[in-house]
C-alpha cells in the first residue's frame, strides 16, 4: 500500500540502529531513508488489501529494515496501520506510535506492572519516558522519574510522584523498586538493576541487559506494531488521559526532510512533510469540539528550545 506522508516521527538514535543501514540479511541498503513512525493518507492499495480505503487517514510504525517515512510517499504493509481519527492532527498522530507502544509494551506486556507497584522511569521527560510515566500512574503505579536537572518539572507534570536528577542525586537513594524502565543503558542501567526488589523486572529498550540479578527478571525488547493498541493509545490522547510530548516540529520549508534533524528540545521530534492538516482543523471548527488542544503545535525550527505537551 502507498501512503502520502504528512508527518513523520524521528528517534535520534535511529542513526545507530543496524536496521537503518542494512536489511535483514545484513546487506547494505544505503542510501537509507530514516523515520519509522508516521501519520498520513492512503493513496494506493496493494492487491488484496482489506480494511483500509483510499484517502483514509492512518498512522503507525513501518518496517525497521526498510526505507522509512521521511519522504513524501512510502510503501507500508497494511497490517502495520491504524486509522487516525479525524480530529487528531497528523503531527500528534506521528508522535505517538513508537513512544506510546514502547511504553505500553514495556510496562504491561514485558514488565507486567500491577497497581501499587513502584516504577523507576528513566528519561521521564523524554518521548518514551513521558508515556511510561503517565501510563504507569494511570494504572496505579508509584512513579519515580529520572533525567537531568532541567527535566524535573516536565517529569512531574507528566505525573511522576518523585524525581531523581541522575547527574546530582544518588540513584541508591531510590531504595527498592518493582520495575525499572530503562531508556538510557550503561552505568545507569547497571546501577538500576541492583535497586530491584525480589521478583522485580528491569525492562530495557536500549539493547541487551548485562546485569543478571538473582530472583529478578531482565528483559530487552524492540517495540512491535500493534494497530489495535495504537487505537487505544490515541483514544486516551483524545479523551485527555494521555498527553504526547512533542519537542521539535521541523518544517521542510525551512529544512529538507532528508537533513539530519538534530535533537534540540525534550520530547519527540516530528518532521512535517506536508502543510497543516486542513481536514482536521475544519472538522473541529464545525463541531466546536473541546479537544482543540489536539491541534498542531506551532511549527518551529530545530534550533527552538521550547517543548510542547499536547
Ligand atoms: N527498543 C525499542 O523498541 C525502542 C523504542 C523507542 C525508543 N528506543 C530507544 O530508547 C531511547 C530513548 O528514546 P526516546 O525517544 O524516549 O528519547 P528521548 O526523547 O531523547 O528521551 C531520553 C531522555 O533520557 C534523558 N537521558 C539520556 N541519557 C541521560 C543521562 N545519562 N542522564 C540523564 N538523563 C538522560 C534524555 O535527556 P537528554 O536529551 O538531555 O540527553 C531524554 O530526556 C533511545 O535510545 C531509543 O533508541 C528503543
Automatic annotation (TrEMBL):
Pfam families, alphabetized: ADH_N, ADH_zinc_N
The Enoyl reductase (ER) domain, residue ranges: 19-271
Top-level lineage group: Bacteria
Biased composition (Low complexity): 296-310
Classification via InterPro entries: ADH-like_C, ADH-like_N, ER, GroES-like_sf, NAD(P)-bd_dom_sf, YIM1/Zinc_Alcohol_DH_Fams
SMART domains listed in its UniProt record: PKS_ER
Matches recorded under SUPFAM superfamilies: GroES-like, NAD(P)-binding Rossmann-fold domains
Residue span of region Disordered: 276-310
Identification of the protein by name: NADPH:quinone reductase
Amino acid at each position: 500500500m502507498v501512503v502520502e506522508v504528512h508527518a513523520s516521527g524521528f528517534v535520534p538514535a535511529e542513526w545507530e540502529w543496524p536496521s537503518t543501514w542494512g536489511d535483514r540479511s545484513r546487506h547494505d541498503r544505503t542510501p537509507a531513508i530514516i523515520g519509522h513512525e508516521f501519520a498520513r493518507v492512503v493513496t494506493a492499495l496493494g492487491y488484496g488489501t482489506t480494511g483500509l480505503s483510499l484517502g483514509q487517514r492512518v498512522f503507525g510504525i513501518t518496517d525497521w529494515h526498510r526505507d522509512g517515512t521521511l519522504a513524501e510517499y512510502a510503501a507500508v504493509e497494511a497490517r502495520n496501520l491504524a486509522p487516525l481519527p479525524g480530529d487528531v492532527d497528523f503531527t500528534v498522530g506521528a508522535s505517538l506510535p513508537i513512544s506510546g507502544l514502547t511504553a505500553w509494551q514495556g510496562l504491561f506486556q514485558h514488565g507486567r506492572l500491577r497497581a501499587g507497584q513502584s516504577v523507576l522511569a528513566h528519561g521521564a521527560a523524554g518521548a518514551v519516558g513521558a508515556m511510561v510515566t503517565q501510563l504507569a500512574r494511570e494504572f496505579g503505579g508509584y512513579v519515580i522519574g529520572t533525567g537531568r536537572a532541567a527535566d524535573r518539572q516536565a517529569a512531574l507534570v507528566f505525573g511522576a510522584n518523585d524525581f531523581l536528577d541522575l547527574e546530582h542525586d544518588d540513584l541508591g537513594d531510590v531504595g527498592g523498586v518493582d520495575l525499572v524502565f530503562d531508556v538510557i543503558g550503561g552505568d545507569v542501567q547497571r546501577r538500576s538493576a541492583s535497586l530491584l526488589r525480589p521478583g522485580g523486572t528491569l525492562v530495557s529498550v536500549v539493547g541487551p541487559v548485562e546485569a543478571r540479578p538473582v530472583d529478578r527478571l531482565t528483559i530487552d525488547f524492540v517495540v512491535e506494531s500493534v494497530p489495535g493498541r495504537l487505537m487505544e493509545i490515541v483514544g486516551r490522547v483524545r479523551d485527555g488521559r494521555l498527553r504526547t510530548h512533542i519537542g521539535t516540529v521541523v518544517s521542510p520549508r525551512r529544512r529538507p526532510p532528508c537533513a539530519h534533524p538534530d535533537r534540540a528540545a525534550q520530547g519527540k521530534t516530528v518532521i512535517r512533510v506536508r502543510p497543516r492538516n486542513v481536514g482536521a482543523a475544519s472538522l473541529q471548527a464545525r463541531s466546536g469540539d473541546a479537544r482543540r488542544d489536539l491541534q498542531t503545535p506551532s511549527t518551529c525550527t530545530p534550533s527552538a528550545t521550547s517543548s510542547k505537551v499536547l
